[in-house]
Amino acid sequence: MARVVAWVVLAAALAFPLAVQETYYLSFASRIFIYALAATSLNLVLGYGGMISFGHAAFVGTGAYVSSIFIAEGLTSAWFGWPVAVAAAALAALVIGAVSLRTRGVYFIMITLAFAQMMFFLVNSMKAYGGDEGLSLTGRASTGIGIDLGSDVAFYYISLAVLAAGVGGLHRLVHSRFGRVIQAIRENEARAEAIGFPVYRYKLACFVLAGAVGGLAGVLLASHGKYVNPNVLHWTQSGTLMVMVILGGVGRLWGGVVGAASLLGLEDLIANHRVEWLASILPNYQQHANLGVGVVLLAIVLFAPQGIAGLFARRRNA
Amino acid sequence: MLELRSVSKRFGGVVATDDVTLEVKRGEVHALIGPNGAGKTTLIAQVAGDLGSDRGTIVFEGADVTHAPQHQRVRAGLARSYQITSIFGRFSVLDNLALAVQARSGSSFSFWAPVAGEAALFEEARAIAAEIGLSGRESEIAATLAHGEQRALEVGLALATRPRLVLLDEPMAGMGPEESQRVITLVERIRAQVAVLLVEHDMDAVFRLADRVSVLVSGRVIATGTPAAIRAHAEVKRAYLGESAAA
Question: Which residue from B16, B152, B242, B246 has the highest number of Cβ atoms inside 10 Å of its Cβ?
Answer without folding.
Answer: B152
